[in-house]
Each structure stands twice: as C-alpha cells, then as structure tokens.
C-alpha cells in the first residue's frame, strides 16, 4: 500500500481480470457519489484525433494506422506491433507516460471524499504506487471466461489467452488490501461496495 500524497485526494485502485466484473463495481461506486478515474477512457483520450499521442504514433508508424475519419485504427496498430517486441516496447514507452500523467491530473481533480482509480492492468503496469489502497474484484477463472465470452463474443481460446497475459488471480490477491467477491449476485456485490464505501470515507476523513 502506497503512502498518501498530500497533493491529491485519498485514492483507491480498483482492478481485476477480464470478466471479473470491474464495471459493475465501478458503476456502483459512481452511484454512491464517488469520482471515478477510468484508465481505459484516458487511454483512448491520449490517442484521440488531434492529440499529441496520435501524432507521435503516426510519425513513427505512418499514416496507415489512421482511419479515413482521423481515428486511430487499432486493428492496424495491433498488426504492426503483434509479435514485434521492439515496436511493442516503443509503443508502451510512448503511451504509458502520457496515460500515467493524464491519470495523475484527473486524480488531482477528484472532488469526492476519495477517488477510485479504475485500472485493469494496475498490477501488470506496476501502478500501485499511484494509490493508497488496492481493491481487487475477484471471481473464479471459469466464471471470468464465461462472462467475457458472453460480453465480447470472443472464443474461449482468445479469452483464456488474455487471462494468461494478465496477472494471475493469486498475484492480484497478494497485493489486495480489499477483495470484492463477484461470484454471486450483482446485489451481493453492490452490498460489499457499499460497506467498503463507508470504510473508505472514514479512512479519507482521517487522512485529511
């Protein structure tokens, strides 16, 4: 658990594997009035049309990674970096600092008593130092696979390969300060979120 920074509010890092139910948890925190900093949204914003991030990618990879409407062609970009470790490393070095900086700016603007930093790859990208507490959304792997297949329409092979590329369930649980069991009903999950919300409000008030 990281030490709280004076320049920003108390932050809880929310993470979990594909299909674990992070969106349900994040949406429940939001309905309770908690400001959410969503890493996925920020990652899209840093390569939006007209952004410095997209310009840097085009300069490196060429205009073939941009659609006719000026959007990033993610499929074309994936093709360029797939199985090319050097290009993948360049891409990460280009985008990760931009994403991290944007997340820090968004976190500094949190107005609620504490903020949620929702980062699917919090563990994998070694971002736990950005938060004061780590909350993991957890469920059995077979449940992850079934949910992700239903949501994305992807094959079991693809979903399991994504799971294999992420931190293991054990690795996430090892760094968790709090665990939300999302293996039962949505209402059961929401009740756990409400209980943690009260806990985080109390901790945040003490840290101010």
Automatic annotation (TrEMBL):
It is an enzyme of class 2 (transferase). InterPro entries: Depp_CoAkinase (IPR001977), P-loop_NTPase (IPR027417). Signal peptide: none annotated. GO terms for molecular function: ATP binding; dephospho-CoA kinase activity. It comes from the Bacteria. GO terms for biological process: coenzyme A biosynthetic process. Catalyzes the phosphorylation of the 3'-hydroxyl group of dephosphocoenzyme A to form coenzyme A. This is Dephospho-CoA kinase. The gene is coaE.
């Amino acid at each position: 658990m990281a030490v709280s920074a004076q320049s920003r509010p108390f932050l809880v890092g929310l993470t979990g594997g594909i299909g674990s139910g992070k969106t349900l948890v994040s949406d429940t925190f939001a309905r309770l009035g908690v400001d959410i900093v969503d890493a996925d949204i920020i990652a899209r914003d840093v390569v939006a049309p007209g952004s410095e991030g997209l310009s840097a990618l085009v300069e490196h990879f060429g205009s073939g990674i941009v659609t006719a409407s000026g959007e990033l062609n993610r499929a074309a970009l994936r093709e360029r970096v797939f199985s090319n470790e050097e290009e993948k490393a360049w891409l990460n070095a280009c985008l990760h600092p931009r994403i991290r900086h944007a997340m820090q700016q968004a976190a500094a603007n949190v107005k609620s008593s504490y903020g949620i930093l929702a980062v699917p790859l919090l563990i994998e990208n070694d971002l736990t130092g950005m938060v004061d507490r780590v909350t993991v959304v957890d469920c059995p792997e077979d449940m992850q696979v079934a949910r992700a297949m239903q949501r994305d329409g992807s094959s079991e092979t693809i979903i399991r390969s994504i799971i294999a590329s992420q931190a293991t369930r054990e690795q996430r649980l090892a760094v968790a300060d709090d665990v939300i069991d999302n293996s039962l009903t949505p209402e059961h999950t929401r009740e756990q979120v409400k209980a943690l919300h009260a806990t985080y409000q109390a901790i945040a008030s003490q840290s101010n």
